[in-house]
Amino acid sequence: MTSLSRSVLSPSRNSAVAAFELSPDFIHLNHGSYGAVPREVRLEQERLRAAIERNPTGYFQDEFPDAMRSMAAHVARRLGGRSEDWVFCENATAAISAVLHSLPLESGDEILTTSHAYGAVLKAMSLVAERRGAKMQIATLPPLLEHDDQVVEAMRSALGSRTRLLVVDHITSATATILPVKRIAELARDSGVPVLIDGAHAPGQIALNVPQIGADWYTGNAHKWMFAPRGCGLLWTTPARHGQTRPAVLSHGTDLGYAAAFDWVGTRDPTPWLCFEAAACAHDGLGGPDLMARNRDVAADGARMIASALDVQVAGTPDTRAAMAAFILSEHGGDAEHAMRFRHALAHEHRIMAPAYAFADRLWLRISAQIYNEPADYERLVPACQVLLAARAPALA
Average of pLDDT values for 297-309? Predict the structure, then answer.
């Protein structure tokens, strides 16, 4: 088996691994789904929770509003734009539901997305369209995209006179492919169609200046690649859309404007949001831009080795992938049951955490690269997949 280059590894990798609290019993190749919280960020969250518990009434009534806006300013400095355009939510799914429910839809209107859209987003779009008498349109993209023009032309062909919203991923979950969102936003803007970018996987994985993309809304998760505690979702809204955009849960801030409406939707634990600054500092401490470049190199090396060793296809091209890569493991057995069994066996028989799933009637596997990963992790994945694919060959045929 060809060894991966060790030149991509950080010289301080051992200390970086120690910064997390991941179980050594597994190889963790799924940072993309749930992230991993550094110890220093977890301790900051515990400190914040303790501070709130000392005087909950005083905190929420006197300190919380300013604390939220201060943290929004940190988001703006990191991801671009003005603090008043940024709000927090539990995750990108919640942000997308907020935008969908804020959208004025009439019978016969259409909302458009792609066949690569995240499953939860597809379900939300379908239900909202059904309840409003509108239609959901899906622009079909090939599972293995070869160039950006394929995506842009598919969007161009699917946009119609009744299209009222275009929802498109920045980095797709199923294929780990970076889509040309700036070109798509420009195309939609020329057609008078507002655009919502689902950037769930983007913050901390790729460099971002969100306003420069040209979308109407952009949502991302800081709890994936930015090291925030889970429940730290972000939503950016262009100023022209502030008036119509409200959270799906309406509360006392509803009539006070966009930011106030999202900042307070009822009593809950705000510490994932209040940890954004600590998480961003942890990201910087592990390299910041250098970390993102390092993870991209590790994922690219791992993808080449896995694709060659297993003789499988990897989605996208090297310049349309970042710190994740997705493979078609089998052209058969592309259903949820087979994928669940494969993932379960990979975890419990081989102690490797990596998502296996069905997409486009095929069986897929996705890898992630984070500072705690090294080439040997991907080298161990190959024989595990070979054993499982051989054992399940009759079922997959």
Answer: 97
CA angle 28, 33, 39 (to 5 degrees): 60
Q: What value does the mean pLDDT take over residues 195-219?
A: 98
**CATH number, position 333:** 3.90.1150.10
Cα(75)–Cα(222) distance, rounded to whole angstroms? 10
What number is the average pLDDT over the span 156-177?
Answer: 97
Confidence check: pLDDT of 4 > 60: no
At residue 13 the predicted structure's pLDDT band, cuts being 50, 70 and 90, is low
- Residue 44 φ/ψ, nearest 5 degrees: -65, -40
Looking at the structure, do residues 30 and 59 belong to the same domain, yes or no?
Answer: no
Residues 312, 347, single domain; the answer is yes
Same domain, 310 and 180: no
Are the C-beta atoms of residues 327 and 314 closer than 8 Å to each other? yes
Cα 81 to Cα 316: distance, rounded to the nearest angstrom: 30
How many Cα atoms within 13 Å fall on the side-chain side of residue 242? 16
**Residue of 162, 220, 218 whose CA lies nearest to 195:** 218
Residues 6+ apart with CB under 8 A from 291: 10, 283, 371
Tell me: pLDDT of 212 over 50: yes
pLDDT in tens, 104-139: 999 999 999 999 999 999 999 999 999 999 999 999
Largest interatomic CA distance in the chain: 64
Q: Give 16 or 80, the one with higher predicted confidence.
A: 80
Q: Please give the angle made by the CA atoms of 157, 159 and 162, to the nearest 5 degrees.
A: 140
Nearest CA to 330 out of 357, 350, 368 is that of 357
Q: What is the pLDDT of residue 337?
A: 92
Which stretch of DSSP H or E encloses residue 88? strand 86-89
Q: What share of the chain is helix, strand, coil (3-state, %, to 5)?
A: 50, 15, 35
What the block records as the tokens of 243 is 């008036």
Cβ–Cβ under 8 Å, residues 162 and 130: no
Does residue 194 belong to any structural domain of this protein?
yes
- In 3D space, the residue among 154, 156, 157, 164 whose CA is nearest the CA of residue 129 turns out to be 164
First-to-last alpha carbon distance for the chain, in angstroms, is 27
Q: Pairing between strand 313-314 and 324-330?
A: antiparallel
Place of tokens 């897929």: 364
